[in-house]
Predict the structure.
Amino acid sequence: MAKAKRQMIEKMKLIDVVIELLDARAPMASRNPMIDEIVGNKPRVLILNKSDMADPEQTRAWQKALSGENQRVLAVNSQDGDGTSLIPKAVRELTEEKRQRAEAKGMNPRADRALILGIPNVGKSTLINRLANKRIAKIGDRPGITKQQQWIKVGKTMELLDTPGILWPKFEDETVGLKLAATGAIKDEIIDLTEVAGFIVRVLSERYPDLLMDRYKLEAPLDDDLWNLLEGIGRSRGMVRSGGHIDMDRTSEMIVREFRSLKIGHVTLETPE
Ligand code: G4P
């Protein structure tokens, strides 16, 4: 990790702006807390990616909460390209002052150089391909940047490093892991699906009770006890084993799958403070 971090800090010297990808459904959990040490005070464009899967109202709230002097925030769907055309413009705005200073010294203006950073599965390769308008091979998700670098031209004003910076997720507390598991950012083999399903159902019952009731034909008021609630969902889907017990493994797997495939609805797992 220390080596990866050092390499990344080294790369910062090449670029004007950092494009940091976050998952719109969990913008804080999908952020590496070390990012500030790596990026320093370089201007940043934060991308709330996969915004097609998030709650639009929460995405707007996050955009507002995260915007700042040296930082633009865009909601993007890298898969179909929604919002991606705004990226070069946002980058351009952030380099305006620097460019003016260079021009005042008689230097020729040059393209803005940017690098995409983010944790695995947040959509870095998809976004690079989208901006490059072609398919660029996906490299292994190892922290740091390993292969030979090339610049990709994006429109007239921007150049992008063809290899993203891969940051590792950081499980500062248990809910970070649960949020990343719910969105599919971490592999199912290393997590307890019932815990993840319980977490999803807890968020839904607290913040999106109507979606939960509609999807699983539950009646208000929802049971306060999480286990009972999960059993109720299993029962409503007929996931009953011999002896009348609810099959919690199947129920959990179904909830997680339906959450990830948007069958339950557009849900954001965390709200700005
Ligand atoms: P990475 O480089 O950061 O590791 O992520 P990558 O681009 O490989 O994207 C991870 C998964 O997220 C891919 O799905 C990709 O299609 C999906 N994805 C990326 N951006 C978006 C987005 O804005 N919206 C939605 N809905 N999905 C997005 P996959 O199932 O792993 O692969 P595939 O089915 O695309 O082949």
